[in-house]
Amino acid sequence: MQYVPISTSPALRMTRSGIRAVMELALADPEAIRLEIGEPDTPTPAHVLDAVAADARSGHTGYTASGGTAELRAALAAKLAAANGLVVDPESIVVTHGAMNGITLLLQALLGPGDELLLPDPEFPNWRMAAMVAGTEVGTYPARAEDGFIPRLADIEASLTPATKAILVNSPNNPTGAVYPAELLAGIVELARAHDLWVISDECYEAITFDAEHVSPARFDTDGRVLTVFSFSKTHAMTGWRLGYAVLPTAELAETVAQIAEATIACPSSISQRAGLAAVRGSQDHVARAVAAYRRRRDESVAALTAAGVRCSVPDGAFYLMVDVAELFPDAQVLAVRLLAEEHVAVAPGEAFGAGGAGWVRLSLASGPEALRTGISRLVAFLERERASREGAPASARGALTV
Ligand SMILES: Cc1ncc(COP(=O)(O)O)c(C=O)c1O
Fold this sequence. Notes:
- The protein is an alpha/beta fold.
- Helices cover about 40% and strands about 15% of the residues.
- The chain has helices at about 20-25, 45-55, 70-85, 100-110, 125-135, 155-160, 180-195, 250-265, 270-280, 285-305, 330-345, 370-390; strands at about 35, 95, 115-120, 135-140, 165-170, 200, 225-230, 245, 320-325, 345, 350, 360-365.
- The protein has a 7-stranded mixed sheet, with helices on both faces. The chain has a 3-stranded antiparallel sheet with strand order 9-12-11.
- Strand 5 (about 165-170), helix 7 and strand 6 form a beta-alpha-beta unit.
- The longest helix is centred in the C-terminal third of the chain and has 24 residues, at about 370-390.
- The model is unreliable at about 395-403 (pLDDT under 50).
- It binds pyridoxal-5'-phosphate (PLP).
- The site of pyridoxal-5'-phosphate (PLP) has 13 residues, from helix 4.
């Protein structure tokens, strides 16, 4: 009998996300305060649930076109014009099984083996996983803490290689909360034009900004090279409905992407599409309420950390706060494991987001106000105890922490 390897698929190069590793430990701890996950703490709005219940009864339960229903695509085109300043043909929109499915589909459509996708560092780890599924290579460009995690155009240009085919941009950003200024986004599109590259813009957090305006880079696209992915997950508290959409420069490209979708998901869930329709057409008050709540939590959390002498980012958007623990924990994974074991607080170690995240931890402002307050006070107490114990310890023992 002859044995063959199960597969030579590049997808098998995928490694486990460092956020998942903490999440799994946290799931085994019933007392854990969960600050590691990025999921709204509010339910899907009632008007969406009501519409969906009626729609399910009236038969919206079958397959739809692979790229989504004409009705939802038309409603999304209206939303894109009103909220994003993008005039888009509904035929250029592909409704997807969440934004992540959208990104994977775009990579499968645009990039081949040996082509390189450039990601920001720190990065949302699932982009790299999507690149592996699509069989493409990954490079990074830095978004430096000293610049408020806003990347420099010169750094992006210096990170290009002959293999680079696409630059991924994510503003508002996960994990840093940075919101990129319009001039930078225009500059990135211009850079892509000069080097004949695609720009993939992940705008999952488009609706969550505090002191900065969200701008879609597609506004600066003059020759059809910017592709944008949106999501219902965070804006409408619909993470489990798995609904997003990709906006392509042409209907032909949308058709190609929809065909790849057919091979993987057949079509997005019909009932989730009805939920999406109710969410885009109905009242947006829940969005304003959620953003106000995240802003209050940001202000309170930044004040508590700053008062305790702990450096943190001041996010302009999304719902994440980065806390600098590098002085005591240059490897924040060590802190994450100990904080969970000793204080029952789960945080995402920065290393899960790449080299640029080392020595930071990410807290989710979507975790709920009480969880955040308690989690931050335990984190501060933990750091203080750690500092005191190291100051009291002989010099040789300092920094010699093990998990
Ligand atoms: C930057 C970013 N992109 C994409 C996603 C995934 O969104 P979806 O639930 O629509 O797949 C997330 C979720 O955390 C995210 O943070």
